[in-house]
Amino acid sequence: MRPAEVAAYCYQEALSLVLENEAGRNTDDFHLDFSAYWRRQLENAPAVWVWLGRDQSSRLVAAWHGQAFTLIAENEDDCQSWLNHRFGPKKERSVRSALVVGLDALPSPSDYPVNGGKLRRLIAKSAPDSLAIFDRFVSSMSGNAVVVLGGKTLDGEPAWAPVIVSDGISSSGGKSRAGALRGFRTSRKPPALQVLDRGVKRASPTLVDAYISRLEGGLGEGLAAKRVVIFGCGSLGAGVAKILLQSGIRRMVLVDPENLGWENIARHELGGDSVGKAKATELANRFTLMYPHVREILATVDSWQSLARRDPGVLTEADLILSLIGDWNSEAALNDLQRAPGGAITAPILYGWLEEHAGAAHALAIGKAGSCFRCGFDTTGGATVPATKWTSKGPNVCGGATSVYGAVELAPSQALVASLAIDLLLGRASAPVRRSWLAPRSTIGGLGGRINAAWESVYGDVECGGRMMAAPWPQKVDCSCSSP
């Protein structure tokens, strides 16, 4: 297309838009992408960060007024928690009230409030039941305050439109209305008239929980109330913990007695600045800073056995326990504790482990009934039917063989375990259940291994590999879990 034709096309499109706007035929656009229109011409507007979820009912909430932004949250505890997580604890952070007003319909640009009178008329039109709380809020405010208007877009998504309500001259440039209200002493002025003295300025909203909009429908909210406990904060456990937090988990306990070593920084969420420090503590500190909306991330620098003796409530109150230790003796003992008659652990336990070179990985959920963790292993912890076979083991380090793999090989294993954890928490899967990941056949072969023929005879041909598959967990007839 020639430049002149491009210019003519753009001119016609712009002219059509203006004419449709004047005729009132494109008002739906203002409510479809409301936030984009609300933010127009707000380059120097005050910044308001909003953390209110999807509840748009009219109510008093909490506000922290900082130099760079104002944070709006459900209550003072939420305000303080978010700020402490994001910026570190501080002795004094003053929190004041703000107001949320839920509108029946979002305003068009011509109805955007530019002064106190226009704001009140908007509320009277689109939220008449909220006028009383609005008038009380304005009459009691001291200095600047935030009113957050909320409503649904045409797609049904919540949108937020904050305004700063201040004393004196309105943002539209008009004079104070004090002269128009002669006859009333300041202290006797009716609440419905006090707002006319207030200036109103649109603010630029930032949704600090906007991550929810990028998740599968309902995922973040469905996981928000769940509590998970993770045993083992190594390369697998650290990555799984991060994925679960990114997916919406807000309560987590990390348990690991070990410190980070230099040998693991190429495949761990932590780096060189954490070497020699406790993995659980370092992860908790880092994740708290990264995800300030998370309610609680606790770290225990101890074994799970010591934790169970010292604070058994951590296990009994969990919705899901993940054991990513990769140690047979420790995990067999955990299995026995769960299956003990009258045992206090009611949550399913999700075990995760890797085979050599991360050529295969397994995620296994065990409950109070059915096959147990021991059913798929021999008495020394060897898998009854491993997915891969190897001509040699990894190098001997720290008194035993270690597996060689990097972040690329590890990533599918982390996704495998995390996805099953999410399905269990949301009720989309139930124990006992196992899922397995097998690397591409060529990758395994290039590292000196092969896919185990016995695995394929039991669970089916894996073809070229590079796939996730369901692999039913066996139940041994001579296992204690099979006894009536």
TrEMBL record:
It comes from the Bacteria. Keywords: Nucleotidyltransferase, Transferase. InterPro entries: ThiF/MoeB/HesA, ThiF_NAD_FAD-bd, Ubiquitin-activating_enz. One of its GO terms (molecular function) is nucleotidyltransferase activity. Residues 222-420 form the THIF-type NAD/FAD binding fold domain. One of its GO terms (biological process) is cyclic threonylcarbamoyladenosine biosynthetic process. Pfam families: ThiF. This is Molybdopterin/thiamine biosynthesis adenylyltransferase. The lineage of its organism: Bacteria, Pseudomonadati, Pseudomonadota, Alphaproteobacteria, Sphingomonadales.
